[in-house]
């Protein structure tokens, strides 16, 4: 049944959908799916098929019990418009955002391109979003028990740099202090205007000082994560891990889009499909191996003590299994869902459960980091 669903989607539905501009079809499909998911009888039907929860994949994270480790990464639901859609199609949790202090209309179009042969996307939204106040108002009215995190970033403006950018993050943090089960500081969006990125160690330390101070003052109980790109290596990575330990950050998300496009080309099966003149970072297949290696490196450097969410290039149960064996506790994806269709999460979850059974593991804890330590 699952194979048939995938074949129908990949051979018939996806080619039709992909004839439409990618940004337009995202809004139409996700928006339509959200409306359907809000109808009780239809919601029940969707949940009965797409939501599966094998006993050997249950996870306790963020203070809640999750049916399996796979969530929706930030970038799909920037303004908290599709939470019911996400829940009905099988994800265990989602990350909303990235949310910035002020609204931003986004970079000039085209800002989303498909690399069909590579099953990847070129993303150049530039932190498009409605801003913290409007998103908070929408989320305050949500009636859902579905676990979600808040991804935070600085407003994309030439004037939002230095201390102003830190205060922008801080405003988002304060605004959402009572919503969600975890927070993420997005350090690595590759599509913003001037200023030192917060993946820079000195800038990151100043940001963490501010957020940790607020965390204590406001008694925020949520877990705190940072999200890095696949370009972080060597001493740069060591410094970030030192700051994570120093400021008691709870975990790390590995990884965001590739912004080093020349290096990304070395990971693409069909590099000729992408032009280096195109603006934006690359998701999907380009990130798959780079994020996997970075997860292994972080897991090894921290002796398996840092909570890792693996993200980037997950299309199958085998891809998910590889990231867990590399050291990830949870997983996130977007691109794999877009290319794989509505049965993607169900297929991956059932396949991942079968892989654990095949290899004689009773729980995810027994598998985590097996390929590293």
What attributes characterize this protein structure?
DHO_dehydrogenase, 8-stranded parallel beta sheet, 14 helices, single chain, 3-stranded antiparallel beta sheet, 373 residues, flavoprotein, Dihydroorotate_DH_2, TIM Barrel, alpha/beta
Description:
The chain is an alpha/beta fold and 373 residues long. The chain has a single domain (2-367), classed as TIM Barrel (Alpha-Beta Barrel). It is 43% helix and 15% strand. The protein has 14 helices and 13 strands. The chain has an 8-stranded parallel sheet with strand order 3-13-12-10-9-8-7-4. Strands 5-6-11 form a 3-stranded antiparallel sheet. The longest helix is centred in the middle third of the chain and has 17 residues, at 201-217. The model has no long low-confidence stretch (mean pLDDT 92).
Spatial order of the strands in the main sheet? Answer: 3-13-12-10-9-8-7-4
Order of helices and strands: HHHEEEHEEEHEHEHEHEHEHEHEHHH
Estimate what percentage of residues fall within beta strands: 15-25%
Helix content: 40-55%
Structural class computed from helices and strand pairing: alpha/beta
Q: Can you tell me the CATH superfamily?
A: Aldolase class I
What name does CATH use for the topology? TIM Barrel
How does the overall form come out from the CA principal axes?
globular
In CATH terms, what is the architecture?
Alpha-Beta Barrel
Task: Please give the alpha-carbon distance between the first and last residues.
Answer: 38 Å
**Radius of gyration from CA coordinates:** 19 Å
Uncertain ranges? none
Total count of strands: 13
> What's the domain count?
1
Catalytic activity: (S)-dihydroorotate + a quinone = orotate + a quinol
Cofactor: FMN
EC number: 1.3.5.2
GO molecular function: dihydroorotate dehydrogenase (quinone) activity
């Amino acid at each position: 049944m699952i194979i048939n669903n995938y074949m129908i989607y990949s051979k018939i539905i996806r080619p039709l959908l992909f004839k439409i501009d990618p940004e337009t079809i995202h809004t139409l499909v996700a928006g339509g799916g959200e409306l359907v998911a809000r109808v009780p009888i239809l919601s029940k039907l969707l949940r009965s098929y797409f939501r599966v929860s094998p006993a050997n994949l249950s996870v306790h994270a963020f203070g809640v019990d999750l049916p399996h480790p796979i969530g929706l990464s930030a970038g799909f639901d920037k303004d908290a418009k599709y939470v019911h859609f996400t829940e009905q199609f099988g994800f265990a949790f989602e990350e909303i955002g990235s949310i910035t202090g002020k609204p931003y209309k986004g970079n000039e179009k085209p800002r989303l391109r498909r690399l069909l042969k590579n099953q990847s996307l070129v993303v150049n939204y530039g932190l498009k979003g409605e801003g913290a106040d409007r998103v908070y108002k929408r989320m305050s009215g949500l009636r859902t028990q579905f676990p979600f995190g808040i991804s935070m970033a600085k407003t994309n403006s030439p004037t939002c740099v230095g201390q102003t950018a830190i205060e922008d993050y801080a405003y988002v943090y304060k605004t959402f202090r009572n919503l969600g089960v975890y927070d993420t500081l997005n350090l690595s969006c590759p599509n913003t205007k001037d200023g030192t990125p917060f993946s820079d160690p000195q800038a990151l330390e100043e940001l963490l000082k501010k957020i940790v101070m607020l965390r204590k003052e406001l008694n925020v109980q949520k877990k705190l994560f940072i999200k890095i790109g696949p370009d972080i290596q060597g001493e740069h990575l060591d410094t970030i891990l030192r700051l994570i330990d120093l400021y008691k950050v709870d975990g790390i998300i590995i990884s965001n889009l590739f912004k080093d496009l020349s290096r990304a080309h070395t990971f693409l099966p069909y590099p000729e499909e992408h032009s280096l003149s195109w603006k934006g970072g690359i998701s999907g297949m380009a990130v798959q191996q780079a994020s996997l290696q970075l997860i292994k490196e972080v897991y090894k450097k921290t002796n398996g003590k840092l909570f890792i969410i693996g993200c980037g290039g997950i299309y199958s149960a085998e891809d998910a299994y590889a990231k867990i064996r590399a050291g990830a506790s949870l997983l996130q994806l977007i691109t794999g869902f877009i290319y794989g269709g509505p049965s993607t999460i169900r297929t991956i979850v059932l396949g991942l459960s079968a892989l654990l059974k095949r290899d004689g593991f009773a729980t995810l804890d027994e598998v985590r980091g097996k390929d590293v330590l």
